[in-house]
Amino acid sequence: MKALIRRALPRAIRPRRIRGGPLRGVWLVTSWHDYPAGILGRTEGPLLDWFSNEVRPGDTWIDVGAHYGYTAFALTRLVGTGGRVFAFEPVAMTAGCVDQGRLLNRFDQLTVLPMGLGAANTLEVRRLPLTRGMADATHAGSTLAHVDATFARFDWVWPLVHGGNDTIHGIKIDVQGMELEVLDGMRDALRHWRPRIVVELHAGVSRERVLRLLSDAGYSGEATAIDPAHGESAPRLLDDRSYAFNPA
Fold first, then answer.
1. What are 35-78's pLDDT values in tens digits?
2. Residue 67: how many CA atoms within 13 Å on its side-chain side?
3. In angstroms, rounded to a whole number, what is the distance separating the alpha carbons of residues 69 and 87?
4. 29 — phi, psi (to 5°)?
5. How far apart are CA 190 and CA 168, in angstroms?
6. Superfamily assignment of 44-226+237-245 in CATH?
7. So where are the chain's domains?
């Protein structure tokens, strides 16, 4: 039923004011088909609550997998004019929507980078399935339309874009199945800065490898569920849920 309703929603992408929630009134450039929950302001509630407790004015945050910019805009408001947010989005068209939203909202502290993060030492182009404005590796082999996107490792890109200030306070990652590649590509930054990390995990991603990689970078093996499942006493690292990790 949900899929049928989505197919009937308008596909025109244009600036729209978010209608409710913590970002009410913020401009979001998207379509009803691609992101109805974003337009209504009924998405990412637990994550935005976590941001409100963890993000400080003046911080530098990295948003990996920005989509249409909902979480990037939330981070941008929290870091304030003295902070910085760098939003990475591999789908060029979608990244353009985020940048248009940046201009409409006058978020000068936000930098939008039309590329994805992975484990490659230099730039590489990958063809991935495209769904609702997202490059989605979890749909490999599907009949969806595909998009060509540019990727590189964060540790290679960051010195080129940080503008002389390489400090990092936090990282949000939501990359539709590419979590391990992203984390592998930022090992140096994780070891050096020990930023707060929140990752949405997806089907097919090895939880053991995620925990081992984070442990090697100096993080605790304990995860904090951003939106715990009903009755969950300890995080089970479920699909399509976000978890926070702190330095050991």
1. 999 999 999 999 999 999 999 999 999 999 999 999 999 999 99
2. 21
3. 8
4. -95, 105
5. 9
6. Vaccinia Virus protein VP39 (3.40.50.150)
7. 44-226+237-245
